[in-house]
Design brief:
This protein is an all-alpha fold. Helices cover 59% and strands 0% of the residues. The radius of gyration is 15 Å and the shape is globular. The N and C termini lie far apart (47 Å). 17% of the residues are buried.
């Protein structure tokens, strides 16, 4: 069970933790509906709080990869979701871009 206190302590729960189990088709439909109301790119890639990281991600992540990644997040209960190359590709881009936010020693 999720609560505001639990979210504050542990972050937002995954859809599967909330009891949502979407197929890939349902995930794509949900993404398309969500993107009509929210700038998904800005929401997901702009959530790091550092403009250099956001700019880097915007250069490295195309719309198709972002959609595949977000849909995979919503369909984690599906057996093929964990092997989705979009997850790996976006995670690699995030790791690389987040290095821009690390302090440099000098």
């Amino acid at each position: 069970m999720t609560s505001p206190d639990k979210i504050e302590q542990q972050g937002l729960p995954s859809p599967s933790e909330l009891g949502f189990e979407l197929t890939k088709t349902e995930g794509n439909t949900f993404y398309d509906s969500m993107s009509e109301c929210v700038d998904v790119r800005k929401f997901f890639l702009g959530s790091f709080g550092d403009q250099a990281v956001t700019d880097c991600l915007n250069q490295k992540v195309d719309d198709a990869t972002l959609k595949a990644y977000v849909v995979a997040l919503f369909t984690m209960a599906s057996p093929d979701a964990e092997s989705d190359p979009a997850i790996t590709g976006l995670q690699n881009a995030m790791t690389e871009c987040q290095q821009l936010a690390l302090p440099t020693s000098g």
